[in-house]
Each structure stands twice: as structure tokens, then as C-alpha cells.
Amino acid sequence: MACLIAFGCKEKPHFGDKSLLISENGRYLTTGNGEPFFWLGDTGWLLFSKLNREEANTYLEDRKQKGFNVIQVMVLHEVPSVNVYGDSSIINKDVSKPAITEGNDFKDIKAYDFWDHVDYIIDLAEKKGIYMALVPVWGTNVKEKRVNVPQAKIYAEFLAKRYREKSNIIWLNGGDIKGSDGLEVWNAIGETLRANDPNHLITFHPRGRTASSTWFHKASWNDFDMIQSGHRRYDQDTSAKETLHYGEDNWKYIETDYKLKPTKPTIDGEPSYEGIPQGLHDTIEPRWTDADVRRYGYWSVFAGAFGYTYGNNAVMQMYKLTDKKPAYGPKAPWTTEINAAGATQMKHLKDLMLSHSYFDRIPDQTLIAGKNGDQYERVIGTRGEEFAMLYTYTGKNFSVQMGKIDGDEVKASWFDPRTGKTISIGTFENKGIKEFNPPGEPKNGNDWVLVLEKI
């Protein structure tokens, strides 16, 4: 058995270099050879049910080229789910009875079933270096009592045994649901997955504006925490009292998780999607843009997240022009929207984080001198021993407390989240307070990262 926590592991991880492990300090993910793994996810929720083999290859190849290395996908969106070939996933709406045929020959319509198609796509992703974060059954089905505990245990054991030798699996328990809605079922799934599959990471995908840590931080099956910061603007965040009123400030969820004990990695697994109406349901509302998904990404990662999941309205539901009732009013099909501006820009965040020392990085708001701004004016800082980064969404001047990293002098540059290009701005004495002036005129979406590096 491979150790899930890298610290103290002397035996070779189960999947070798392809294994995903928790870093020694409990904050990040590593591959089996100890290299950093920056999770750059995409929500391809309906991939298994909506796309055929050729379309799946088109989608996965595009995401590979754009730097994505994790796809979040539902195994069962509904009970039962039916795929593009008309194959049903289960028998008699019972998740404990997967509909399995003998053989897996695609040319034999009687042999190639729903699960063979899932296998095919998982294997295709593995060849492209992509991990599949699988949601066993979407939360609505559990909340509406379509899945009970005995069924959940049998189904979770089936999944674990079918996919435990696939190197590119991550388990995403839940699915847009509060842990309290079906708590016994979620624990049954998590515990059964862990008992039958000790070598893959497991987390829980929660409801919008909630964090999985609320219910499962200390669960023995839970390896890392996930938040869904959700799709509402500040003024739309009118959640019930028991949920957190952070509006668009997704960094606050990460900051909260970061302080929890025991230490576990955390990530925003669903911020606002590019191209989706603000608040989701009213298609007349403004749409979230590439600038917004950048902001959520840099805010959460600089606040301490180990990666980031991007989403697009059309892509997450694999919208086609022939779909009669798409959700949330997508404007163009998934084949067009895979090239949305935000999707092409996400790799710059990943590349930036991997270009500096990785495991020593911590969030540090003391880098910002004086009073920090609120909401869009907030500057978020992070640093390692020999570098510091500060993200501004508006491009207004801000002051930095120097001396937080090693070295008598530092070289400074502006990193452009839109292009990934860097503008050098000189060398500075590494002490006192220094004001920096980002390029361009201050406005929402004129975002920049100030990078300070030891000379």
C-alpha cells in the first residue's frame, strides 16, 4: 500500500511517479517522485454522458494543450444516467446495480456499455497526463432520497474496485451539496472508497458558498478540503445564516481552511464560471468574464490554495446547439467556448506558481503595508524564502513592506495574468516600505502580479 502522506513514506508509491500525494507540510500535492503538482482543473461535468469518443478526444486534447491537468466530471448526473450512445448506467434506478454487458468492443453495440465508455475516456485522459476527479453520484440524487446507505456502499465498492488500478483517478464525493444533506450516505461513500481504494485521493465537492471542511475536515477518508465559492456577486450573497457571507471574496474560504487542524490542503473547486449569468438563474444578468475567473484564481492560490478549478458555462454542460433545454443560457456551443479567453489564460497562473520554489510558499498579508482595500481593491500576498508575489485586480498603486524575503536587494517585475509575460521594473533595497505603480490606468480587470525576487 502506498502512503497518502508523503512525509515518512519510504516505499515506492503505488502508481510510481503518477501517484498524487499530500506534501510533507500538508499544504500541497506532489507526484510520486516528489515534484510539485499544481492542480489546474476544468469542470467537464457532463463529459461522460454528453460526448462521444471523438468529441471526448477533442475536449481532452484541448485541455491538455491549455495546461489543464484535472477534469472534474460526474459519473452519475442523474439516477439513472444515459450516455450519448443511449446506454443506461444502472438497472431499475438502483445505483447498486450497474448495467454491465460482457465485453467492451466499441464495434459491438451490445458489448460497449455506459461503463466501457467511462473506461475509454479515463484511459484517454491518462494518456494525455490528465487526472479525472470523479463524482460518484451528484448531490441532488442523494438529497431527493434516490440513494440510500446500503445502495451507496455497494455502488462505491463497485467504483473503487473498477478504478483503483487506474493511475489518474481522484474521488470527488458529494456534488454541489451540503454535507448535512445525506450525511450518512456521503460518509458511507467516502469510507467505502477509502477501504477499497487506499491509493487515490478523496475530497468532497460542496454546495455553493460552503466548504467541505464544515462537515468532513476530520473525516478519516478525506484527504484535502474543497470549497465552492459559487456564482453570486457581493450583493447577491443572501445565504441563510448558517452559511458564510463572503460574496466574491473566495480567498476568505481558503484563509479559513488554512487555519484548521489537522493541516490539510484546500482548493476552490468551483468559483464563478466564465460566461455564466451572475447569480446563475437570471439570464438577463451580466455574465462573469475572463477577468473574474483570473481574480478568483489568483486570490485563492495566493491565499494558500494548492491549485484552482476553472469553469465555463457551455463547457461544463457540454452544450450543443441541438440541446433543447440548456442550463443558464449558454451563448455558444462547447466546441467554441473551449477557447474562451479565461480558459487560455489559466495556464499562466500554473506556470507562475511552478516557476518559483514551491513547498515553502505561504500566504502573507503582512507584505501589504498600510491599510489594504476591500472587495475588488483587496491586494493578496504570498511568498517563499526568496520570492514574494502580490496580486492586484484593479491595478491601483499599493505599498509593500520590504524585508519579508531573503536578500539585501530584490529585483522586481510585473507579471501579466492575461499573457503570462513579465515586465522588469528594476532593483530595490530590501527594507522599508516601497510603493509600486502597476502598468495602465486603474480599473477592474487591470490585474497584475508584482513579483519580488532575491538577487
Automatic annotation (TrEMBL):
Protein name according to UniProt: Collagenase-like protein with collagen-binding domain
Apiosidase-like catalytic domain ranges (all copies): 23-359
Annotated TM spans: none
Signal peptide per UniProt: none
Superkingdom per UniProt: Bacteria
Domain Putative collagen-binding: 362-453
